[in-house]
């Protein structure tokens, strides 16, 4: 009897967890859902800091310091109890961030800087172990009429992880597997296969799916919140995914995102829609040893807007991966899998979500509760 009493609340708890997981996986939100129900990004409150300057105190500024520490701009310390003071460390962090993202380097929280900060992004730090792994290859040159223009250097912008970790030389084939608990469809898995193919096209590396999750070189899974790797997810938008450098092989995606599997993501009526292939291509770059790039067109640029598709390797990405692994003899300098429109179908209006049945169940539950209350 006691065992039955224990199982019942556990079943209820598990069901509620599924509802939370599935609540943001519809490709389109019907217009009749009451306004204000759409989730906002975890960093939207940062917009209130526009115009903040050094030497002043602003309520909640410690949260922004936590953001900069997480992505490597403020050195990690045993205790991260930041104050709300706009101090020297924060100003230096802002300057480095502005340089990395090709912004006007002022050390102030201007509108353009905060717009960049609030964008959804990869959870991998831009600066690792105090080493700048994302150096902007652009300088700002002030002209006589006080206008500013960007001068491009001829150097590459790609970066690698400290110590230049890579998969063993001579190991040309890497296996990957999906976390069994996700029960992904073949359609979803094919998105990752295409993402892997974009990298193998320009190198000698090959990627093969295996059903043996524990023995795979690369392990892919969708998880919520704190999932045991020290890098908890933060819900819709914010950090979308993260992957570890070679030869770790872990590749985690935030299950709370509104992942779009196929179709034209730019036409989604859901402002939080995120293109799955775009994020997958980026994170595979980390799995292979690439850090972040300051080149906006590069796949390895850290941020991507919602409802944006970005899957084509830029020259900077190609130079970076070939620096680590060499060139595919068959590569002629242009990618074959290169068209961002590859997934558009039915006039660009067809979208497939990861777990559509669960999204539908969640929506029906929401409507029912709305009428019962």
From TrEMBL:
Sequence ranges assigned to domain Peptidase metallopeptidase in this UniProt record: 163-327
Cofactor remark from the record: Binds 2 Zn(2+) ions per subunit. Can bind about 5 Ca(2+) ions per subunit.
Active site: 283
Any one Gene Ontology molecular-function term assigned to this protein's record: zinc ion binding
Family annotation (Pfam families): Peptidase_M10 (PF00413), PG_binding_1 (PF01471)
SUPFAM superfamilies in the cross-refs: Metalloproteases ('zincins'), catalytic domain (SSF55486), PGBD-like (SSF47090)
Residues the record lists as binding Ca(2+) 1: 257
Binding positions (Zn(2+) 2): 122, 282, 286, 292, 300
Any one GO cellular component localisation term in the record: extracellular matrix
Chain span(s) of sequence motif Cysteine switch: 120-155
Cofactor: Zn(2+); Ca(2+)
CDD domains membership: ZnMc_MMP
Keyword Glycoprotein belongs to the record: yes
Positions of Ca(2+) 2 binding: 217
Alphabetical keyword list: Calcium, Glycoprotein, Hydrolase, Metal-binding, Metalloprotease, Protease, Signal, Zinc, Zymogen
Protein residues bound to Zn(2+) 1: 227, 229, 242, 252
Stated family: Belongs to the peptidase M10A family. Matrix metalloproteinases (MMPs) subfamily.
Name assigned to this protein: Matrix metalloproteinase
Source organism of this protein record: Medicago truncatula (Barrel medic)
């Amino acid at each position: 009897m006691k065992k039955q009493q224990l199982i019942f609340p556990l079943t209820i708890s598990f069901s509620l967890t599924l509802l939370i997981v599935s609540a943001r996986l519809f490709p389109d939100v019907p217009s009749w859902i009451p306004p204000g129900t759409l989730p906002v990004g975890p960093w939207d409150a940062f917009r209130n800091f526009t115009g903040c300057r050094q030497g002043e105190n602003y309520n909640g500024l410690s949260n922004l310091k936590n953001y900069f520490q997480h992505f490597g701009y403020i050195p990690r310390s045993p205790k991260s109890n930041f104050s709300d003071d706009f101090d020297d460390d924060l100003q230096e962090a802002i300057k480095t961030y502005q340089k990395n993202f090709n912004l006007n380097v002022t050390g102030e929280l201007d509108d353009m800087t905060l717009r960049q900060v609030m964008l959804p992004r990869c959870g991998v730090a831009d600066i690792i172990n105090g080493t700048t792994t994302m150096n902007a290859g652009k300088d700002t040159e002030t002209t006589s009429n006080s206008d500013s223009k960007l001068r491009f250097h001829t150097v590459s912008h790609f970066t690698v992880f400290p110590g230049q970790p890579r998969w063993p030389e001579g190991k040309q084939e890497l296996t990957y597997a999906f976390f069994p608990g996700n029960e992904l469809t073949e359609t979803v898995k094919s998105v990752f296969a295409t993402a892997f193919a974009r990298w193998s096209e320009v190198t000698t590396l090959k990627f093969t799916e295996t059903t043996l999750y524990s023995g795979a070189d690369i392990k892919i899974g969708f998880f919520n919140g704190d999932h045991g790797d020290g890098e908890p997810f933060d819900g819709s938008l914010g950090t979308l995914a993260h992957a570890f450098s070679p030869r770790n092989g872990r590749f985690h995606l935030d299950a709370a995102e509104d992942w779009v599997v196929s179709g034209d993501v730019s036409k989604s009526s859901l402002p939080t829609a995120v293109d799955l292939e775009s994020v997958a291509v980026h994170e595979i770059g980390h799995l292979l040893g690439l850090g972040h790039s300051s080149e906006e067109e590069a796949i390895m640029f850290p941020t991507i807007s919602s409802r944006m598709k970005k899957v084509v390797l830029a020259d900077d990405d190609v130079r970076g991966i070939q620096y680590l692994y060499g060139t595919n003899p068959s590569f002629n300098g242009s990618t074959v899998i290169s068209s961002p429109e590859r997934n558009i179908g039915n006039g660009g209006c067809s979208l497939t979500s990861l777990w559509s049945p669960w999204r539908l169940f969640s929506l029906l539950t929401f409507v029912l509760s709305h009428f019962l209350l």
